[in-house]
Specification:
mainly beta, 6-stranded parallel β-barrel, Right-handed parallel beta-helix repeat-containing protein, Pectin_lyas_fold, about 10% helix, about 400 residues, 11-stranded parallel beta sheet, Pectate Lyase C-like, Pectin_lyase_fold/virulence
């Protein structure tokens, strides 16, 4: 065999071998199973970061899966209407979780808390406190016992939602520090509108979870801003309720509708650290049955800066100072006929830039502690009265 023939046969052999090898590789590739198809946004892995909820989904089942996930960052509801038959347990990731309604409407079936996350004890609450939520942009959250019920969080924000017809409260926050509730409409609530509280009830002694006290489970330094509560007929509760928490500010808010018990109730009883509460630019259009703005101090400073009352009532005080403390009232441009203040005997009160009729202690202030006696004068300081 000549040298040229050897080269030729060798080349042909290499070509044949390479072709066979390529065929084997292609055969293996054809036999490799495809990755399983998953619907976009399905909560089936513990590593998903963005979850999409769609009309027609079993929302309760989806949230049971989501609640176990540690890396979820955002839960998006597609626009549409959803019927919720069980509480939607929020995940605890130790970070920010965004729940974006995108205009969706949720309607509860039965007396459930729609969005919910409550710890079992204070040890768990201290861990869960690291998770914060941004819950926003739902068209309506309707029915149920509560619309949002969260225990233990830091810097949670609830924004731009209308809550309709809850029987217990639209929003109930427990041990939610430095949170923000803003641009909220509460319509036809059966009991309370927006509640900020510690995990211990000062009246009943009930603990929301084990290991709590008045001073270790508060909603300190939370802001409620640009919110309106419209109470339905025979409403039994309070529009804005702040219990055993300090540094809370109520800004640019409205209480209206049918009579309820109180428009605002700040209670620091039994809590030695609830020292500050302020209301700014509050608008009251209805007459609560047991005092409109009610304050139970514990050495606290309560400030009301900007108050408009539409009507007064001979049977229910516009302001009820329930015990001695420190109170500042200013910028009250209108004090309607029939409006009056029910007070303890000797609160320290500073009044500035209000109508003269508001500071008429003889005719418009009633001593509830010592009936028939005037309010103790040395602790009353009237700086300026409006004359125009």
């Amino acid at each position: 065999m000549t040298f040229k023939q050897v080269i030729l046969y060798t080349t042909l052999l290499l070509i044949v071998l390479m072709g066979c090898a390529g065929a084997v590789v292609r055969k293996d590739a054809e036999n490799t199973p495809d990755a399983p198809h998953r619907r976009a946004g399905a909560a089936v892995e513990n590593s998903a970061s963005v979850i999409t909820i769609r009309p027609g989904d079993d929302v309760g089942a989806r949230f049971r899966e989501i609640a176990l996930m540690k890396t979820v960052k955002q839960i998006n509801f597609e626009p549409g209407d959803y019927v919720i038959s069980q509480s939607l347990e929020l995940p605890r990731t130790g970070s920010l979780v965004i729940v974006n309604g995108q205009g969706a409407n949720l309607k509860a079936k039965g007396a459930i808390d729609i969005f919910r996350s409550i710890p079992t004890d204070q040890s768990q609450a201290m861990i869960w406190n690291k998770t914060r939520y941004l819950i926003h942009d739902f068209g309506r959250i309707e029915g149920g016992s509560r619309g949002v019920f969260i225990g233990s969080s830091f810097n949670t924000v609830i924004r731009n939602i209308e809550f309709i017809g809850q029987s217990t409260a639209a929003i109930d926050l427990v041990f939610c520090l430095m949170s923000t509730v803003e641009n909220i409409l509460v319509t036809n609530v059966g009991h309370d509108g927006i509640v900020l509280r510690s995990a211990v009830d000062s009246q009943t002694g009930k603990h929301e979870w084990k290991g709590t006290s008045f001073n270790n489970s508060q909603c300190n330094h939370t802001v409620v801003q640009s919110c309106r509560v419209y109470n339905k007929k025979e409403c039994t509760g309070t529009s804005f309720k702040i219990l055993q928490s300090t540094g809370v500010r109520l800004l640019d808010c409205i209480s209206e509708g049918w009579p309820n018990e109180h428009a605002v109730f700040f209670d620091a009883e039994k809590c030695t650290t609830a020292k500050l509460f302020s209301i700014e630019n509050f608008h009251l259009e209805h007459v609560p049955t047991n005092g409109a703005l009610c304050f139970r101090s514990n050495g606290s400073i309560v400030t009301v800066d900007g108050l408009y009352l539409q009507v007064g009532s001979k049977t229910s005080p516009s302001i009820w100072i329930m015990n001695n403390g420190n109170y500042v009232f200013k910028n009250i441009p209108w004090w309607p006929e029939g409006a009056w203040v029910k007070s303890s005997n000797s609160p320290y009160v500073v009044i500035e830039q209000t109508r003269a009729s508001f500071a008429d202690f003889k005719n418009n202030w009633v001593n509830a502690e010592k009936p028939g006696q005037p309010i103790y004068q040395p602790y009353l300081d009237v700086k300026r009265k409006l004359v125009r």
